[in-house]
Amino acid sequence: MKKVLVTGGAGYVGSHTVKELVKNGYDVLVVDNLETGHRKLVDHRAKLEVADLADKEKLKSIFEKYIPEAVIDFAAYLAVGESMEEPEKYFQNNVANFINLLDAMNEVGCKLLIKSSSAAVYGNPTKESDIPWQEDFTECYRPEKSALLSGNWQGKKIAGEEFFQCFLDHYNSIYADRPELKLSSDEIIKLRIPMSIYGVTKLLDEIVMKKYDEFCGLKSIVLRYFNVCGADPSGGIGEAKPKPTTLMTLAIWQILGRVPELSIFGDDYSTSDGSGVRDYIHPSDLATGHIKALKFLVKNNKSDIFNLGTGTSSSVFEVISAVEKASGGKVKYTIKPRRSGDPAISISDPRKAEKVLNWKAKYNLRDMAETAWKWEINNSKIKIQKSK
Q1: Vertex 60: Cα angle to 56 and 65 (nearest 5)
Q2: The predicted structure's pLDDT at residue 380
Q3: Do residues 123 and 193 touch, judged by C-beta distance below 8 A?
Q4: What pLDDT does residue 57 have?
Q5: d(CA 126, CA 138)
Q6: Are 61 and 104 in contact (CB under 8 A)?
Q7: 254 located within any domain
Q8: Which residues in the chain come in under a pLDDT of 70?
Q9: How would you class 142 by CB atoms within 10 Å of its CB: exposed for 0-12, middle for 13-18, buried for 19 or more?
Q10: 363 CB contacts (<8 Å, ≥6 apart)?
């Protein structure tokens, strides 16, 4: 199996994965609307079709033209805070457009999918033993009410179950004529776990994928990865968004003078230094994880879910420190209130991926900071202002 279609392949993680795919001999077609992706990040050995997944006819024509054997999907919005303020935008791009992709795959008989998911599906730990996150948490935990924090729905500030029901009603109204996509009571309970609309959209995608497996045999691997930072060690590709979302890139941008101050959302969490704690992972490690997952899916034709993370915890302040050491600069920051949708702690248990996929992350936080800094310097014309 060699022909792979990669949605969002001109983006941050997508471009790293495309590079790894072509290095391994795959024939790769990238489909990207270039809203946040860049042509120059797409490996020259891959083909590129500029298209939006919202355009069903264009998408179907691409599938009919190239007849891919498998799809790797990265096309999604991923800013947690923005998802709480613009939930319908996130529904359209992360859910409705994804269902368009699944429909196109089904119509042409492409039955293998690797899906970029997120640790945001886990929400906030309910007890100490929940951390590190294991894949079956979303199957075992059954909350009575939604954990959604405060957000906006059609101009109204709401939270919790009310917010969740608005989102659920929107889904039900859009797919009222698709009985195969109707959510069961157990699936609705599961969707109450995430704290953000972003997390809800990702978990809903996972649920929808299972439905496609059941009614048309579309097999898929869900990769729940944790906080991405770093860049390709060669310095050729990295996070090149007009408005970066990763903490490490934003810290580097502050040192480079692109932003006046870095915003730290909360220093009053019940963590070692009061800041949020995360599991950070390098995009090159994620790329190899996608290759391993694809090979597993081709060999076993079996749907499954895997965490991709290091299993190591790092706080916001530790990430800032790593950036300062890599750059020789000093990050100026200001403390702001906690951001809606952010959990206090999120660390992966990657043992399942290690055992089943024979995959393990090799880059540490220092590597991430050094490669991210190298990428920015190679691609920046802004003079570095080091601290005195």
Answers
A1: 150
A2: 57
A3: yes
A4: 95
A5: 12
A6: no
A7: no
A8: 1, 380-388
A9: exposed
A10: 230, 281, 282, 284, 285, 371
Spatial distance between the Cα atoms of 208 and 34, rounded to a whole number of angstroms: 26
Q: Which pLDDT does position 1 carry in this prediction?
A: 66
Q: What CATH number does residue 200 fall under?
A: 3.40.50.720
Residue whose entry in the numeric block shows the structure tokens 């992350």? 361
State residue 240's pLDDT score: 84
The per-residue pLDDT for 385 is: 37
Answer whether residue 253 is part of any domain.
no
Torsion of CA 333, 337, 340, 342, to 10 degrees: 60
d(CA 135, CA 349): 8
pLDDT attached to residue 85: 96
Residues forming a β-bridge with 220: 113
pLDDT of residue 236: 84
Please identify which of the residues 77, 122, 171, 198 carries the catalytic annotation: 198
Question: What does the alpha-carbon distance between residue 179 and residue 181 come to, in Å, rounded to a whole number?
Answer: 5
How is 264-323 classified by DSSP, letter by letter?
EE-S-SSSSSSS-EE-EE-HHHHHHHHHHHHHHHHHH---EEEEES-S--EEHHHHHHHH
Q: CA–CA separation, 376 vs 237, rounded Å?
A: 10
SS3 content of the chain, % helix, strand, coil (to 5): 45, 15, 40
Return phi, psi of residue 286, to 5°: -65, -40
- Residues spanned by the domain of 133: 3-229+281-309+349-363
Give yes or no for a contact between 218 and 105, defined as CB atoms under 8 angstroms apart: yes
| Residue 314 resides in a domain | no
pLDDT of residue 212: 98
Residue 106: CB atoms within 10 Å: 16
Is 269 a catalytic site residue?
no
| Residue 51 domain flag | yes
- State the total domains in the chain: 1
**Which amino acid belongs to residue 121?**
V
Q: Judging by beta carbons within 10 Å of its beta carbon (0-12, 13-18, 19+), is residue 268 exposed, middle or buried? A: exposed
Picking from 20, 247, 223, 216, the residue whose alpha carbon sits closest to that of residue 121 is: 223
